[in-house]
Amino acid sequence: MTIYKAPLDDLRFALFDVLGAESTLTSLQGGEGHTRDLLDAVLEEAGRLSEQLLAPTNGPADEEGCHFDKATQTVTTPKGFKEAFKQFAEGGWTGLTNSEKYGGQALPGVLGIATTEIFQSGNLAWSLYPLLSEGATHAMKMHGEEWQRERFMKPIVEGRWTGTMCLTEPQAGSDLGLLKTRAEPTDNNAYKITGTKIFISAGEHDLTENIVHLVLARLPDAPEGSRGISMFIVPKFKVNEDGSLGARNTVAAGAIEHKMGIHACSTCVINLDGAEGYLIGKPHKGLMAMFTMMNAARLSVGVQGLALAERALQNSLNYARERLQSRSLSGPKFPDKPADNLLVQPDVRRMLLTQRAFVEGSRALLLYTALQTDVESRSTDEAARKAAGELVAFLIPIAKGVVTELAQECTKEALQIYGGHGYIAENGVEQFVRDARIITLYEGTTGIQAADLLGRKILQLQGVGFKHFLQEISAFCQKHSADEALRTLIGPLAIITKQWGDLTLQLAQRVQANPEELGAAATDYLYYSGYVSLAYLWARSVAAAEASTQSAAFKQAKRDTASFYFTRILPRTLVHKAAIEAGVATLPEIA
Questions:
Q1: What would the pLDDT profile of 18-56 be if each residue is shown by its tens digit?
Q2: Which residues, including other chains, have CB under 8 Å from residue 20's CB and lie 6 or more apart?
Q3: Phi and psi dihedrals of 502, rounded to 5?
Q4: Which candidate in 21, 32, 63, 550 could, as Cys together with 554 as Cys, close a disulfide (CB 3.0–4.6 Å)?
Q5: CA dihedral 342, 347, 350, 356 (to 10 degrees)
Q6: Whether the Cβ atoms of residue 296 and residue 142 lie closer than 8 Å to each other
Q7: Kind and range of the H or E element at 160?
Q8: Residues belonging to the active site
Q9: CA atoms lying within 13 Å on the CB side of residue 61
Q10: CB under 8 Å to 169, separation ≥6 — which residues?
Q11: pLDDT tens-digit profile of 111-140?
């Protein structure tokens, strides 16, 4: 069984020392009570719940998987899941960041991201059941009518129901313009929805009494392509006006997918056969509502990468400390033992430092992005709201695309440290590798995140969020230009930030001359952007540590990891820059 201890010290450091979350949150509308004491208490309780209730189920639930009864079209989740969800809902976690009007606690989004990391590290597959509900409730809050929020959203917030997103079809994955599910209007302001959806996470389960599906479909008069998509609320059980459950709706799981990882999450084929549904938002504007869910989901998927990488790091570090094997190249370090531990090997330290650099840097990036969402939604300063929204839009593809890719590297290095023992299922780390593989695929592949960053956020939107970020980094470098403790970080950060801006301008000019350059450069540009973003946050982390009351050992660990990142990881940008400059000409057509 693998270990897990919620990283509360580093979460607090990132939130309060690096990002100054308390002063930001308490200055926002409705945030007077969002003090450090409150946030600390919530983090403590989340850690307890994850460590004691979720983490022990991770391995056994992966081995057991979900059980699909074809006759009844129902799913039974692994042992312990139902009780865990019951305690989770009773604790108010299902409505942590939702409006009090609908039964939530209206706590900050950045706190929701921090607790989500803790729960996902405990058991990623389990965490997907409540996670999908967040996107569904957000869409209903932003685009639904009040009666829809009362009837369908409120029970989800209370934890009595869950929600899903039903987007993908066999012939329509990332290109939703190809979807065929249709919606026929009826006489009672409802619609009959018919079609098949695939890859629906938590599409059927036994955790709650009802499941609310948000389904993309086409109305009879819908224009072709993505402009003709509408969104509908389709409950598993019909819901009466008084909120009580009615008859079973004609929407059901046709199967559950047999997957590489996250075995304990029921990923379903969902069949709709004239199922009763209700239009949410305006006709043919479902794509707008979908992106409301998608942006929130993409940030949460980035957190999944962090969560898996954190647990992989904890276990590989523990193994490296305990595993006795061979001797140090410079002579025995533990002469009283039959062999030295793995930590005496420089290459093992390289793998562990790579994981630590990515985990702690990614945590700062994700919390930074989440804090901007709070500013965007709660600030009383319209200019601040606008700038925060532009910054979030720019950072989302980096937070999703880069962090999930780095999680692949972290889980791989963790398994490598275990050696052959890592390949054996009973030790648990191979599950991290399998579970992490999906996160670069769903909610938009890495290539889609890259195209979104370069094509939309940089070119189409003229890089407004990018400019905000560059200005912030430049101001930070100027502020600390004479800071001796940051001398080895500020110079390189200032240089590469300028190079980032120059490279972006050059690339935009090339894409204008030949649109194919966008596709050729996008993924390398995404990685380049991610590595520079983490460099900034590592520099901020060291600055915050130096100014804090943290222990000498804590400060030294931050300095050492930042130095490792700047000297051994940040130079990867040179490779991506060279690939970008090589251009589309180096990608010939393949017969």
A1: 999 999 999 999 999 999 999 999 999 999 999 999 999
A2: none
A3: -65, -45
A4: 550
A5: -30
A6: no
A7: none
A8: 443
A9: 27
A10: 178, 179, 180, 181, 195, 196, 197, 198
A11: 999 999 999 999 999 999 999 899 899 999
Q: What are phi and psi of 231, to 5 degrees?
A: -120, 140
Among 110, 154, 159, 164, CA closest to 132: 164
Decide the pairing of beta strands 210-217 and 161-166.
Answer: parallel
Phi, psi of 32 (to 5 degrees): -55, -35
Output the pTM of the full model: 0.97
Q: Packing angle between helix 382-418 and helix 286-322, nearest 10 degrees?
A: 40
Write the DSSP symbol of residue 167.
-
Task: Using alpha carbons only, give the angle 2, 58, 65 rounded to the nearest 5 degrees.
Answer: 135
**Token pair of 298 as six digits:** 């993409």
Largest CA distance in the chain: 84
Looking at this protein, which amino acid is placed at residue 272?
Answer: L
What confidence tens digit (pLDDT) does each residue in 308-357 have?
Answer: 999 999 999 999 999 999 999 999 999 999 999 999 999 999 999 999 99
DSSP reduced 3-state for 261: coil
The span from the CA of 62 to the CA of 37, in Å, is: 36
Neighbours of 487 (CB within 10 A): 11
β-sheet bridge partners, residue 185: 191
118, two tokens: 């803790």
Q: Which residues contact 55 (CB under 8 A, 6 or more apart)?
A: 2, 3, 4, 121, 122, 123
Cα 468 to Cα 68, 341, 491, 506: the distances in Å are 49, 47, 20, 19
State both tokens at 96.
């942590």
Domain parsing of the chain, residue ranges: 291-586
Fold of 291-586: Butyryl-CoA Dehydrogenase, subunit A; domain 3 (1.20.140)
Which tokens hold the place of 362?
A: 């990614």
Q: Which is nearest to 413 in space by CA: 347, 360, 318, 322?
A: 347
3-state secondary structure (DSSP) of residue 183: strand
Cα 556 to Cα 267: distance, rounded to the nearest angstrom? 44
Q: Is 91 helix (H, G, I), strand (E, B) or coil?
A: coil
Report the run of H or E that residue 184 belongs to, with start and end: strand 182-185
Per-residue pLDDT tens digits for 411-450: 999 999 999 999 999 999 999 999 999 999 999 999 999 9
Phi-psi bin for 588: left (phi > 0), alpha (psi -120 to 50), beta? beta
What does DSSP say about strands 230-235 and 237-239: parallel, antiparallel, or unpaired?
Answer: unpaired
Name beta bridge partners: 68.
75
Q: Cα separation of 52 and 55, whole Å?
A: 7
Residues 380, 4: Cα–Cα separation, whole Å:
40
Q: What's the pLDDT tens digit per position in 173-220?
A: 788 788 999 999 998 889 999 999 999 999 999 999 999 999 999 999
One-letter amino acid at 447 equals: G
CA distances from 114 to 98, 102, 368, 390, 394 (A): 15, 22, 11, 22, 21
Structure tokens that stand for 238 in this block: 């019909």
Burial grade of 307 (CB within 10 A; 0-12, 13-18, 19 or more): buried
Categorise residue 502: left if φ over 0, alpha if ψ from -120 to 50, beta otherwise. alpha
3-class DSSP state of 330: coil
DSSP run (H or E) holding 96 = none
